[in-house]
Specification:
This protein is α/β, with parallel strands linked by helices and 135 residues long. It has 4 helices and 5 strands, in the order βββαβαβαα. Helices cover 51% and strands 23% of the residues. α3 crosses α4.
């Protein structure tokens, strides 16, 4: 089975999620995005550590979507596996809602929001693949 990395890309934080068997997405980590070179270094380190074979980026609309595409284009210099996009409309709002429902403290929620959004993005991608295989 393929190991997937889900990415919730933001201008301040990058949230990551992982799926080892292409079934269930799990939050992995969040790191600050301050420098593009440092972000690529961290991503390639995580890709190597976890044996990532495919990456799924959440794709927002508008100018932020263009920034995601530019980032992914440059990621191609460091990762030669397949990269997919998944609509991320409302993923952060949904992640916030679910984290509030989990009754986690606000400080915990703030740290986890981006990786939780990445797991929702990745899970939606994985579910859509299953749906297309069933039809």
């Amino acid at each position: 089975m393929t190991t997937f990395l889900g990415v919730d890309f933001g201008l301040k934080h990058i949230g990551l999620a992982i799926s080892y068997e292409g079934q269930l997405a799990e939050p992995l980590e969040t790191f600050s995005y301050q420098d593009q070179a440092e972000a690529f270094r961290k991503l390639t380190l995580i890709i190597d550590q976890h044996g990532i074979e495919s990456v799924v980026f959440g794709l927002p609309e508008g100018k932020m979507g263009q920034k995601v595409h530019l980032f992914v284009d440059k990621l191609g210099y460091f990762f030669n596996g397949p990269v997919s996009f998944q609509d991320e409309t409302l993923s952060t709002k949904e992640a916030k809602r679910k984290l509030i429902e989990s009754q986690r403290k606000q400080q915990q929620r703030k740290k986890m929001i981006h990786q939780f959004a990445a797991s929702l993005i990745l899970q939606e991608f994985l579910d859509s693949r299953k749906d297309s295989l069933i039809k």
